[in-house]
Write a structure and sequence with these properties.
The chain is α+β, with helices and mostly antiparallel strands. It is built from 5 helices and 14 strands. Strands 3, 4, 5, 6, 7, 8, 9, 10, 11, 12, 13 and 14 form a 12-stranded mixed beta sheet that branches. Helix 1 (7-37) packs antiparallel against helix 2 (54-80). The longest helix is centred in the N-terminal third of the chain and has 31 residues, at 7-37.
């Protein structure tokens, strides 16, 4: 919370962190005494060694003291100056791949279905450069007060029949809170009964477009328009493409095999 808070709210959270550090230091010092009295404490028979011991706990105390006496006061100084805390981490000054979500409305669905969506509309188009299929697929994001609108485009090669959309499935990954693995939201794109998915062919440009409306409530998203981390994977009839690379990690001792550093930033253009 302190990362995104400002002013007195952030200072009170830093003060609470200082109190927690004080309690942890006191507990650790007591634990050092107990370990010196009883050498069995901290021994792990299956690991054939100690999981904790006096020297290790003393090291922990030093780290907590440094946090309390140096790092937290430095952060408080930044807050008093009106500076953001860890702006690269929170997305205030994002580093790496990013896409801007542009203010839009539900007319995107009708415009796409009729093939009348203006191709020069000022979306922040991003190409999907990773996956099993190299293509000209690109995507953009719009939003209104309660929904996202994901816009997909693929140019139809000359001589091919534009009778149906090339897109079959969409997988949206959203990391709504840092340190928590991203959630996946999958959508079928070729079901004509769905009212939140519309596709259309633009004869002038030779482009198939699909728009998916995703209400914030379906994503359990609070709609505060703070920067998000995310990715998109699109299944086509000829293969799959995605915006960001996927470098899977060893699943052991991790919450997910996906690497959060692979995700890009989703930033909201809130200019009126």
């Amino acid at each position: 919370k302190a990362f995104r808070s400002k002013g007195t709210a952030c200072l009170s959270q830093l003060e609470e962190m200082k109190k927690i550090a004080d309690r942890e230091i006191a507990i650790s010092r007591k634990m050092i005494e107990y370990c010196k009295r009883n050498s069995l404490l901290g021994f792990h028979s299956e690991a054939e060694g100690y999981k904790y011991f006096p020297d290790l706990i003393e090291w922990r105390v030093r780290q907590l003291e440094y946090l309390r006496d140096r790092e937290l006061p430095d952060l408080a100084k930044k807050v008093r100056k009106g500076e953001d805390l860890y702006p690269e981490y929170t997305g205030q000054k994002p580093v790496g791949a990013q896409i801007r979500a542009i203010k839009a409305d539900s007319n995107l669905l009708q415009e796409t279905e009729s093939g009348s969506l203006n191709p020069n509309r000022q979306f922040d188009w991003q190409f999907c450069e990773y996956g099993s299929k190299r293509s000209a697929v690109r995507w953009a994001i719009g939003y209104d007060s309660d929904s996202f609108y994901l816009i997909l485009e693929d140019r139809v090669k000359s001589g091919k029949s534009p009778s149906e959309s090339p897109f079959t499935e969409l997988d949206l990954t959203l990391e709504k809170q840092r340190l928590i693995p991203g959630s996946h939201y999958k959508y079928s794109l070729n079901d004509p009964s769905q009212t939140n998915v519309k596709s259309g062919y633009d004869k002038k440009s030779g482009i198939w477009r699909t728009v998916v409306q995703i209400p914030f409530r379906d994503l359990e998203y609070d709609g505060k328009l703070t920067p998000l981390r995310g990715d998109i994977s699109i299944q086509l009839k000829t293969g799959s493409v995605r915006w960001r690379p996927m470098n899977r990690k060893n699943y052991r001792l991790s919450l997910s095999p996906e690497d959060p550093f692979d995700l890009g930033w989703i930033l909201f253009d809130v200019k009126k």
